[in-house]
Amino acid sequence: SGIKFDNYDDIPVEASGKDVPEPLLEFDSPPLDALLLENIKLAGFNKPTPVQKYSVPIVTNNRDLMACAQTGSGKTGGFLFPVFTELFESGPSPMPEKAQSFYSKKGYPSALVLAPTRELATQIFEEARKFTYRSWVRPCVVYGGAPIGNQMREVDRGCDLLVATPGRLNDLLERGKISLANIKYLVLDEADRMLDMGFEPQIRHIVEECDMPSVGNRQTLMFSATFPVDIQHLARDFLDNYIFLSVGRVGS
Ligand code: ADP
Ligand code: MG
């Protein structure tokens, strides 16, 4: 199934929460970064999808987000566009002192995207590569079922946005190869699938690692096709004064 992009304006969108920002009707600068817009154009994207229209201004206005939207609705751009805008424009952040003594290399992401499977993590990484073209931001991806050594070497070469499956990320955390002390953006993509796969303990541990703050407020964005009670609990525990976005028909 999925959404046809020629008629996605018909898709109903509901946004609730305090002070919901106005949706973004076109890919425009501002709020989006000019280099990012060039990369969006290179990717052949002409207009934001409904989830992108709402999520971009929500995130650029520093709000947490719980978004329910079906597969194919453009969620990846919905979180990558505002996060890259912020990263492109703020430039590399200096490594916090606490970490300098511990980490000699640059496995020090500002943004973390958790995804349930190798396939989905790779898709997000490939999108991230397109949209960071000619920018200072270097994306990396780590997932289980593949040699960890190559992934560690990639992370050591510099990692500003990390896309990860929860199990492999925990493995790298245990080995001291990655620090989450600098995370400004945490994205849980396909959160319902991650819970179905039994990743809740790993996710909670990862969020605790992000909560050892050195940069102040972390922004958290959750995406899910459905909104069952266990996802509602994660939203309650991880999100702060969030906006709830529901795109299309959402099951529970
Ligand atoms: P989801 O994560 O919601 O399943 P994706 O972010 O993977 O959806 O997007 C689904 C497909 O639509 C991808 O092939 C993506 O490149 C494409 N797409 C996303 N946003 C746009 C857009 N604004 N314009 C055109 N195509 C888009
Ligand atoms: Mg997706």
Which shape, going by the Cα principal axes? globular
Q: What structural category characterises the helix and strand content?
A: alpha/beta
Whole-number mean pLDDT:
90
Question: Oligomer, anyone?
Answer: single chain
Bound molecules: adenosine-5'-diphosphate, magnesium ion
Give the strand order, joined by hyphens, for the main sheet. Answer: 1-8-2-7-6-3-5-4
Give the H and E element order: EHHEHHEHEHEHEHHEHE
Helicity, in percent? 25-40%
The major pleated sheet works out as: 8 strands, mixed
Number of strands: 8
* Distance N to C terminus: 18 Å
Radius of gyration: 17 Å
**Percent range for β-strand residues:** 5-15%
| Count of helix runs | 10
Structure description:
The N terminus is likely disordered. Helix 6 links the parallel strand 4 and strand 5. 39% of the residues lie in helices and 14% in strands. By secondary structure, the protein is an alpha/beta fold. An eight-stranded mixed β-sheet has the order 1-8-2-7-6-3-5-4, sandwiched between helices. The two termini are 18 Å apart. It binds adenosine-5'-diphosphate and magnesium ion. Magnesium ion (MG) binds next to helix 3.
Layout of SSEs?
Elements: E1 13-16, H1 34-42, H2 50-60, E2 65-69, H3 75-90, H4 97-100, E3 111-114, H5 118-131, E4 139-142, H6 148-156, E5 161-164, H7 166-174, E6 185-188, H8 191-196, H9 200-210, E7 219-224, H10 229-238, E8 243-247
Parallel strand pairs: 2-7, 2-8, 3-5, 3-6, 4-5, 6-7
Antiparallel strand pairs: 1-8
Bound molecules: adenosine-5'-diphosphate and magnesium ion (MG).
